[in-house]
Write a structure and sequence with these properties.
Order of helices and strands: EEEEEEEEEEEEEEEH
Structural class: mainly beta
Number of domains: 1
Helix content: under 10%
Oligomer: single chain
Number of strands: 15
Number of helices: 1
Shape: globular
Distance between the termini: 14 Å
Amino acid sequence: MQAFRIDGETLYEEPGQRAIARHDDHYWVVDCERYLRIDCPAAVLVRFEGDRGPSTQYGPFNHLSFGDGICFVEHELFATFHADNGRWFSHRNRDYWSSIVVCAPESARFLRAQGK
């Protein structure tokens, strides 16, 4: 997997859009197994996407995690999911977005070339 996208509460593989996990009742569900959080203990780049297109790209960060509707980078608050509007609120740019896209730094050029 070169990257993943979280649209609302569903995590998709990028490219390909295959659903990998779904956030449900405070857990991430992967292949019928429940997990409290998703961790990426490796260098990643992060951006938001929405109706107005993509945000600025942030990172690289050495650690990213998602737990119960909260996204942390480097163990600091980065974004929160708001179930009332189905969007992620960025604490960096103070705006709402429909998706969060995460990729390894070496994959960023590939994803831009694919129009992602």
